[in-house]
From TrEMBL:
Protein family membership: Belongs to the DEAD box helicase family.
Stretches assigned to the Helicase ATP-binding domain: 33-205
CDD domains attached to this UniProt entry: DEADc, SF2_C_DEAD
Helicase C-terminal domain ranges (all copies): 215-385
UniProt protein name: ATP-dependent RNA helicase DbpA
């Protein structure tokens, strides 16, 4: 396994990678990084969780001319969630460089503030096709200095009908000396057509583990529609799951299931396309912080979720096609972990295409489930909302300092901290929730008063 030390990158970037505990490269990083650093166009087929974001982000950062305050790189993503997560990863990799501006341009948030931010320039933009194209059509983005273009999860973009938008964006970019890379979980005919249209003599790289499902154990249960919900407690307890993602095909099913699960005594959150960006962010934070151990989602969440320790995925509804199924179950077994994916089906025809793709599915009877009645899925953490964020110069270290020095918590009592533009979230052991609320609301963080609320 190769280390990042073997790459021809700056000492400062290497030190930053070490500080982020990036030591050994994944297979896709090992194959693509030398090519991308050498300005080759690349098509990379890699599964979710393979480390592809780092693969294309390191070259963006290494080649960045920070004193040249103009957009030099563009990353196009299919969803807001993925775009936000990619932007965060790039920002982490830029920590050793002062005054780097990475701008996210996505729908679901106000357009005018983005336009105003673009007037003040940026180095790297990450966005979704529709919003990027709207800014381009209104002449908000200076494109003439873009030297690097990345299409992340290109297959998902095409599935969502963004082919024409992507081509329209690419046609506006400089053609000479532009490096283009395309990352995709599949390499079907539509991806080949797109690659032919926008890449120049690309090198095709495939992670040989792309179709490997050895880390994901799949179990299929045939069941009546009316019995699905009542089976969920047994599925959770028999697998000793602490973080569960449940997929439904329709928003109304998500809401109905959430009500039914609550009646069964489980805490859960719902993620679907009706939520605005702030609500989506909060939902993902509450789930990833383990304040709510179950998230019920439509396929808006089957891509772009960067949560490493989901140990059980349940397909309450069978996915509409085998590609969606693959992306769903890819939410588990990330970051070298193992995971379980369970699919509930009512008719054989629902799973015919999926059966053809996977040859190691375990078909079992619900009678074989070993329900552990003593197992309780109780969240260890509670998440608190703080009405201050990046615009207030609030940092994670400031929150940790206040919790330790003012409240008296230990570092092990503090979980994830997520800082957004105008607000923040912090996970703390649930037994300290009331104490933290009282102390933080009665004291200052970094010399300033903030309101703190339960979530």
């Amino acid at each position: 396994m190769s280390t990042f030390n073997s790459l021809n990158i700056s000492k400062e970037l290497l030190e930053n990678l070490n500080s982020l505990e990036f030591k050994n490269m994944t297979k896709i990083q090992e194959k693509t990084l030398p090519l991308l650093l050498n300005n080759s166009d690349v098509i990379a087929q890699a599964k979710t969780g393979s480390g592809k974001t780092i693969s294309f982000s390191i070259p963006l950062v290494e080649k960045l001319e920070v004193k040249k305050f103009t957009i030099q790189s563009m990353v196009i993503c299919p969803t807001r969630e993925l775009a936000n997560q990619v932007a965060q990863e790039i920002k982490k990799l830029c920590r050793h460089i002062h005054n780097v501006k990475v701008l996210t341009l996505c729908g679901g948030v106000p357009f005018k503030p983005q336009a105003a931010s673009l007037k003040h320039k940026a180095h790297i933009v990450v966005g979704t096709p529709g919003r990027l194209l709207k800014h381009i059509s209104e002449n908000n983005i200076e494109l003439e200095n873009i030297k690097t273009l990345v299409l992340d999860e290109a297959d998902k973009m095409l599935d969502m009908g963004f082919y024409e938008d992507v081509i329209s964006i690419v046609n506006e970019l400089p053609k000479d000396n532009r490096q283009t890379s395309l990352f995709s979980a599949t390499f079907e005919e539509n991806i080949k057509v797109l690659a032919k249209d926008i890449l120049n003599n690309p090198v095709f790289i495939q992670d040989e583990d792309i179709h490997s499902n050895q880390k994901i154990t799949q179990a299929f249960y045939k069941i009546t529609q009316a019995s699905k919900t009542s089976l969920i407690p047994s599925l959770i307890s028999s697998n000793k799951a602490s973080s569960v993602l449940i997929f439904c095909n329709r928003k109304v099913t998500c809401e109905e299931l959430a009500d039914e699960i609550f009646e069964l005594g489980f805490d859960c959150v719902v993620l679907n396309s009706d939520l605005d960006q702030k609500q989506r962010d909060e939902t993902v934070v509450l789930f990833s912080n383990k304040s709510y151990p179950i998230m019920i989602a439509t396929d808006v969440a089957s891509r772009g979720l960067n949560i490493d320790d989901i140990d059980l995925v349940i397909n309450y509804d069978v996915a509409k096609d085998e590609k969606v199924h693959t992306h769903r179950i890819g939410r588990t077994a990330r970051a070298q972990a193992k995971g379980k994916a369970i699919t509930l089906y009512t008719n054989e025809y629902e799973i015919e295409e999926i059966k053809e793709l996977y040859n190691d599915i375990e078909f079992s009877s619900i009678q074989n489930l070993e329900d552990d009645l003593s197992y309780n899925l109780i969240p260890e953490y509670r998440t608190l909302y703080i009405n201050g964020g990046k615009k207030n110069k609030l940092r994670a270290g400031d929150i940790v300092g206040a919790l330790i020095h003012q409240v008296g918590l230990k570092s092990e009592d503090i979980g994830n901290i997520d800082i957004f533009t105008f607000h923040s979230y912090v996970a703390i052991k649930k037994e300290y929730e009331l104490k933290v609320l009282k102390e933080l609301n009665n004291n200052k963080i970094k010399g300033k008063k903030y309101q703190v609320y339960k979530r």
